[in-house]
Specification:
156 residues; four-stranded mixed sheet
């Protein structure tokens, strides 16, 4: 996997869309997992776990890495359901107020037993909450890009 220094990554953010996977995680009670974002973009909002796909990383490898890093347990992409491909646009980026960020996101739905997760506190989220999927769209503290996933989830 290739990692970029901050200057190179800022140029990538400024010139190209980033490709990522978002994890719409549902527990046995029909609740969806959200983490409180500590960094840009979407800082201060509740957002589903997820992250970028790295260069030379297959979708399956990225899914295993992201579930391990974001949920504390490896889950195979074959155990999830692709909801759709989404586009997320932000006025800021992880680097600050500029450049803006454009993501192309594969949104995946997966069902888990809540007690099987070991949710990390760190760079991305400093706390978590579970929200009944029927209430997500009416929760103004959940970022619109995350609440948009509920249109597909409620049809499953």
């Amino acid at each position: 996997m290739a990692f970029l220094n901050n200057q190179a990554f800022t140029e990538v953010i400024d010139r190209t869309p980033l490709v990522s996977i978002d994890l719409v995680v549902e527990n046995e009670k029909g609740e969806i997992l959200f983490g409180l974002r500590t960094n840009r973009p979407a800082q201060g909002y509740w957002f589903v776990p997820g992250g970028r796909i790295l260069k030379d990383e297959t979708l399956n490898e990225a899914f295993l890495r992201l579930t391990s890093n974001e949920l504390g347990v490896e889950i195979s992409r074959s155990d999830a359901c692709l909801l759709d491909i989404y586009e997320h646009f932000y006025d800021d980026s992880v680097m600050g107020a500029a450049p803006s960020t454009h993501y192309v996101v594969a949104g995946y739905h997966l069902k888990v037993e809540q007690n099987s997760l070991a949710l990390p506190i760190g760079d991305q989220h400093n706390e978590y909450k579970w929200c009944a999927k029927e209430l997500v769209k009416s929760d103004a503290t959940v970022h619109k890009h995350s609440s948009d996933y509920m249109d597909a989830v409620l049809k499953i």
